[in-house]
Amino acid sequence: MSGSAVRTVALTKKYGGVPAVDDLTIEVPPGEVFGFLGPNGAGKSTTIRVLLGLAAPTSGRAEIFGIAAQDVAQAHTKLAYVPADVALWPRLTGRETLHLLASIGPGTDVAYRDELIERFDLDVTKRADTYSTGNRQKIALVAAFATRAPLLVLDEPTSGLDPLMEREFRRAVAEARERGQTIFLSSHLLAEVEAVCDRVGILRAGRLVETATVAGLRRLHRSEVTVAYTGAAPELAAVPGVDGVEPLGDGRLRFGLTGAPGPVLQQLARFDVTALNVREPSLEEIFLDYYGEPVRYDCGG
């Protein structure tokens, strides 16, 4: 086996001459949970289609454990896939669907699958055509996590899940990591990526603009803080992590905060602060803040 679970080298995919993925080089070692991060339209889904052999690269190459992604028969013995929009055989029950998926995959831990059915609160006696979007997603997730494929490719896997099921998803990711499985997680949800990933690649307009550990990613996480006070205005300009201090009038001010909140909280404690509100940014806002220009939405997802 190759030293990498997922590897792309100068991968480019164009649609009608427009690059959806542009000169992408990434390397994911076995056993890592790798977050593929970017806003909708950044090229994440196109990259996954190439990795799955569903689209041919315009140039460059993609490999799964050293196997060319275009060699679908061989590469797919090493992976399980959960799409963003799950379609199932409408007349099969959930249990029949899981049995079918297990029969064509690289091996399934049946006892663990039954445990996951309970944890994801999934009624497998119902036919697939009666399932909600969330339940279809659960079927795909249970099938993927129960498999013993060395690579799990997950494309926006929690889009139909409620918060309780998102927690079970994160738990299942941690258990897959403990078993030594590699997870390639495409998402636009910053909180999800921060919670489960070891390392991330940030994609913007089809190009990889940064790779970082999750700790390194947090420096992109700039919060907006609004403070109400009486008396003297808090002096914050020299506090580490604070920028853009803006008086709002009526005893209020606003500023940006990056990194640990300890220093600014210590400084605010010296003043008569009556209220404090912290607003977490969306991922799109983080991109705008970090790159200083609007995100360009391309074809190809």
Please describe the topology of this protein.
Elements: E1 6-15, E2 18-28, E3 33-37, H1 44-51, E4 59-64, E5 67-68, H2 72-75, E6 79-82, H3 94-104, H4 110-119, H5 133-146, E7 151-155, H6 163-178, E8 182-187, H7 190-196, E9 199-204, E10 207-213, H8 214-217, E11 222-230, E12 242-249, E13 252-258, H9 262-268, E14 272-279, H10 283-291
Parallel strand pairs: 3-8, 3-9, 6-7, 7-8
Antiparallel strand pairs: 1-2, 1-4, 4-5, 9-10, 11-13, 11-14, 12-13
Strand content: 25-35%
Number of helices: 10
Order of helices and strands, N to C?
A: EEEHEEHEHHHEHEHEEHEEEHEH
Low-confidence stretches: 294-300
Mean pLDDT: 89
The number of E-state strands comes to: 14
Strand order of the largest sheet: 6-7-8-3-9-10
- Cα-based radius of gyration, to the nearest Å: 22 Å
Oligomer: single chain
Protein name: ABC transporter ATP-binding protein
Organism: Cryptosporangium japonicum
Membrane topology: Peripheral membrane protein
Family: Belongs to the ABC transporter superfamily.
Would you mind describing this structure in some detail?
- A hairpin with a 2-residue loop joins strand 1 and strand 2.
- This protein has helices spanning about 45-50, 70-75, 95-105, 110-120, 135-145, 165-180, 190-195, 215, 260-270, 285-290, and strands at about 5-15, 20-30, 35, 60-65, 65-70, 80, 150-155, 180-185, 200-205, 205-215, 220-230, 240-250, 250-260, 270-280.
- Helix 3 packs parallel to helix 5 (about 135-145) and helix 4 runs antiparallel to helix 5 (about 135-145).
- The strands form three sheets. The protein has a six-stranded mixed sheet with strand order 6-7-8-3-9-10, sandwiched between helices. A four-stranded antiparallel sheet has the order 2-1-4-5.
- Mean pLDDT is about 90; it is low at about 295-300.
- It has about 300 residues and is α/β, with parallel strands linked by helices.
- The chain starts with 5 loop residues before the first strand and ends in a 10-residue tail after the last helix.
